Amino acid sequence: MSVISLEEWRKKQVSSSTLKSQSPRSIQSEVTGLKLTKAEKELDKKTAEAVTGLCFIIWNAWTKPFTTRGTIARNYPELVGICASEGLITMKIDDITWGKHWLATDHGVDYLKENDHYDGIS
User: Fold this and answer.
1) Does residue 85 form part of some domain?
2) Full-prediction pTM beyond 0.85?
3) Per the structure, how many domains does the chain have?
4) Partner of 101 for a Cys bridge, out of 18, 65, 81, 86, CB 3.0 to 4.6 A?
């Protein structure tokens, strides 16, 4: 076994790191980064659909309030329930008065604005 100095070892490391492959790359590599799995893509799609649904309910409550027994409330009871539970829509008119129509709350309008489902109607 031969012993080499630290300087010789460093020179060998530098020279070996500058060597190039003798064969060229045959396949171009793809763009680096994380790739979504099929399940993640499906989840993103379902999330987008859910957000769109919530925005649909809030938009209708804001622009043309619908009744608790109206078509929107009957056709989309889960979305109405989620919006109401999250404080995005309400039937409360003031501290002591409740109505029969779903109305968008300030929080609901902010949610619309954040999700780009807003055309500037005030």
Assistant:
1) yes
2) no
3) 1
4) 65
